[in-house]
Amino acid sequence: MPTLNLDETAKCACGAVSLKFNGPVLSMLVCSCRDCRKSTGTGHSAVVLMTADTVAVSGKVKGHAIKAASGSEVTRNFCPQCGTPLFAKTARAPLLILIPAGLFDEPDWFSPRQAIFSRTHFDWDVLDEALPQYDTYRDNGGF
Amino acid sequence: MFATGRCLCGAISFTVAEPPIRTAQCHCEDCRRLTGTGHIVQAFFKSDEVTIEGQPAVFENVADSGSERRRSFCASCGSTLFSERNTAPGVIGIAIGAFDKSDWYAPGVVFYTSQRPQWDPELPGVPAHEKMQ
User: Fold this and answer.
1) Range of the domain at B52
2) What is the pTM of this model?
3) Interchain CB distance below 8 Å, B121 and A128
4) ipTM > 0.85?
5) Residue B9 to residue A64, Cβ atoms within 8 A
6) Residue B47 within any structural domain of the chain
7) For B52-87, how does the pLDDT look when each residue is reduced to its tens digit (9 = 90+)?
8) If you count Cβ atoms within 10 Å of the first and of the last residue's Cβ in chain A, which end, N or C, has fewer?
């Protein structure tokens, strides 16, 4: 797969927070863990992984840290004014940043390669049938 | 009681007395952004059959459909929770991911297919509309 480089800006729904992306996308996935279902309000999150130093955040964000199904602490950051999920960080991979695909104006470049935490996926949530599914993480434990 | 639910951190919880009057999936830009995904999935109930514990934060705006929307989320953990609009008084939408059990859910209709990202699958056999109906 050719490297996808992002050079764009995205904003939350109310416009109070903006994120500037300048760097390669490392991985793209959907996750059906309980925390992703709860925080998105849907059947799965849709996640873009980048290195944290390629993303600049302007504006006030609110973070919520929780011990995730993976066992590591995940901090989800959102706009305190409109609730838009903005970015998450996991203690499992401290150099990475996880961006919700729905944040982008034109997210058609998003192309998930794996569906993780399928053990807590619900049947009513329709996923691309061609997407490899993993009970928790991919066999090698990586993203 | 029909169902219970709560946000990720538990600061907000709710109970619903009766089954939903409608269920829907929406791909509009606001729904995509406020969930961080390709769509929101919601069940709609009569407001007086829903009891909410805790005080959600509220974001109000005018939707692409022209409705005045009032969306609620947890101020502590950011979880997407409730949605109301002036054009449907007495009705509250609840994000399906917030329910403790959701095996009863099936989308009755899909809105804003005109803004559906190509990576987010279509739902075979479910009535779909380019915008709001």
Assistant:
1) 3-115
2) 0.95
3) yes
4) yes
5) yes
6) yes
7) 999 999 999 998 888 899 999 999 999 999 999 999
8) N
